[in-house]
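Suppose a colleague, Dr. K., hands you the sequence of a protein chain of 776 amino acids and asks what its three-dimensional shape might be. Before reaching for any lab equipment, you can write down a predicted structure in token form. Begin with the sequence itself:
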Amino acid sequence: MSNNLLNVPLKQSKPINLGQELTEVIKSQFFQPASNFENDLQQLTNLRDSITEISNGSIATTTSIDQLFEYYSLLKIIDSKFPKDSIEFSWYITLYNSPIGPIGMRSFKYEELNIIFQIGAIYSQLALSESRHLDEGLKKSCQYFQISAGCFQLIKTLVTQINSNPNSHIEFPGDLQNSTTLCLIELMLAQAQETIWQKAINSETTKDSIIARLSLQTSQYYEEALKYAKLSDYIKLEWINHITVKYYHFLAAAHYRSSIVALDSFQYGEQVAHLRIASNAINQALKYKKYVNNFVIEDLLGLFEIVKTKLRTSEKDNDLIYLKLVPKENDLKPIIGVSMVKPIELEKFQEVPSNDKLFKDLLPYVIIHFAQAMRERQDDYIKDKIFEPIQALDHIITKFLNERNLPASIDALQQPENIPDAIINHSREIMNSGGIKIIENLLKDIARLSSQCNHLVSECQNRIDMDRHEDQMLREKQGTSRWNRANTEKSASVLIAKIKRMNEYLEQAKNGDDVIINRFYEIRGVLEVYMGGFASLNKYIPNSNYIKLDKNIAIIVTDLRDLLSQITSLRTNRQKFLQSIEIKSRDNNILPKLIDEYKRNKKQLYDDQGNFKPTKFELIYEDHIKLFNPELSYINTTKQDQQSLESQIDSTNKNFVQEYTTNINSTLRKRQDSLQNLDTAYIKYNEIITNLDEGLKFYNDFISKGHNVLNECQEFLNKRRIESRDLEIEIQRNYQLQQEEQQIASNNNLTQSVPLVSPRSQKSNVWDPNSNIKFG
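The predicted structure, expressed as tokens, is then:
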């Protein structure tokens, strides 16, 4: 068994009785007896128990993998048939020095990702269990490492898909996030590539130039693994040091092999240069030997001795015999790595299990889901068609009366000393709802959310600006002719437009916030009166002298008071009506109708591919919603009643105003103005509360959608960076090919000089390059 490579430790799970958990879900949400599925529930319980018993202390076997795949297949079935958050699964993170957790999440996807992780971990252990002394063992080990990389690649893909879904609010633990999974992918590929390298050096026929390319690619895989390891909080120091040593080791091995190629080509200066680079790389590796396995350090020291001896000899020979210029590292012909590995995703992950394998007779949760969705539609329908129209009518009549100074004008006449009951009720309502404090708190929440939204937009813009800056730098470095990809403005045009619209929305929202703040400060003084209760109101409202009204105005006031009473009765009836609607809506559940339809026409509800067709349910919903047609007619009736009362009030109030002006005195006018100010402040208070609630909803929605845009910007930046890297590699490769072609053409036109002494004829006590002992 190999001891100089790493395997991924298996995760640990907190045991649960999966069958019992699902039993409770079936009882509470599916309206079916769980006893009908006793065998399925027991099978899941046993299988889940068996996979939690797989541990790092046990020997990795294909039997364990078979169990995990069977459970993974069944998980897909229950994921499709049960609510996504039915059960909480808890797992420990085991990559770090000591287990972290348990971390619980109510998500079948979380369980699936951890099972994939377990499969990847076992394949990494199987890879280490193969013999590295036989070609067959190296071949199997390489394949297992690539399969392990494929598992972690699948985790990365699935997590990215879930995170990109705007309706998803799942935040997976760090060992399932990109920085960690990318590290594991690159580490597994590095170790797979290392087995290819091992096979190559075991073969005496493999050219040193090929081994150099294999070594460099191995080093590059370790370099990528190291980069992501440093970004992750879950890769321990021992692994980081191990990966660092491996990165430098194979970089040194690549240059050591290139030095042999240079020697064979009589390029003595290049030979010395490659050996110096190899020596420096080994010295760097030795700085990180702490906590690294002794087998890894022994391999490194073996290479170190060879490179040190060979460098000393080559420098001496070049100084005394060949006198060739030793080029700088940047002037050397680059070593082009050659990758022989890639992540392998097993077909088993893509197999679609039969839905009849488990819970065959369970009512599909899609029925429950549609019932919930239609219930929400029913609630929205009642809100849009009934509740909001009623509220709008109440708002209209309130505003209508306030514009006519009612009931303040007649209260001032009829109650020259007492505080009107309506004002007292307003005071109680404002105090109970929070008064000034609730507005101030809401304004603070608005300011906080607004700041978050602006920061979110700024972060989006930063991603675009970073790409613009990086693209411009690379464009200047490589030249416009070679840097032939679209600029940021063109590539990110859709995102730039989105960010512009986001800024516009926030500017409009800020203007709206300012208007609300100004309205609040306009009525703040009157609200303080309300908050003071009876004593404060009594002090604020001046008394007036009693005025004996003549017969005409007394009749008008009586008529007005009667009309206002009718308005009050109208509003009271509406509140009772809305309460009855809530009861009716609650008592009329659409789910039984959907279940009946499913049982009657089960086959017709699915298409040829087995996908559910909701069209039949739409017809049932349309018929169901007709239950509320009688209530819709009430809206028209109460609207007509209100319009009739408004007309009568308007006419009567005009007569009152005409008579009233002849009877009013200064004290009465002051009392009326005070009462009117209180009525107006009450109306504006309710409007401000409503506007602030709408503002909170706007900012919360903005943050939710803004995070999606931020993710898009981050993905765009990542994609562009990958493009940049690939394009730079392509440009460098083309440049190298061009240089090689020029060198070949130049060599064809020059006579090569023969060295005075052949390097192979030198007698030396140093290590012979043709020896069977190979460390690099």
